[in-house]
Specification:
Blueprint lengths: L1 E5 L2 E5 L3 H35 L2 H29 L1
């Protein structure tokens, strides 16, 4: 315990080793959890970007639509000529 005087104010300070250890442990744990959270969010963001590219999906959908349109037109014309 430490007692000092500042003007007409008495200042008393004290420490407790067990509480100080507990605070240090919580600070280290918080730092570790923040680091884990940042690395997990970066990995998730990278996986999301790799998995879902909207331009690529739109291009594939367009090509599939054109191909199915050509195929259906060809099949309809073929049925008309068979009759």
């Amino acid at each position: 315990m430490n007692v000092t005087s500042r003007g007409d104010t008495l200042v008393v300070t004290s420490t407790c080793d067990s509480l100080q250890r507990l605070v240090l442990w919580y600070e280290e744990e918080l730092t570790r959890i923040r680091g884990d959270t940042v690395s997990v969010s970066e990995v998730s963001e990278t996986e999301f970007k790799q998995r879902f590219n909207p331009v690529k999906i739109a291009l594939i959908a367009f090509i599939a639509g054109v191909a199915s349109g050509i195929l259906s037109t060809f099949l309809k014309k073929r049925r008309l000529y068979e009759k």
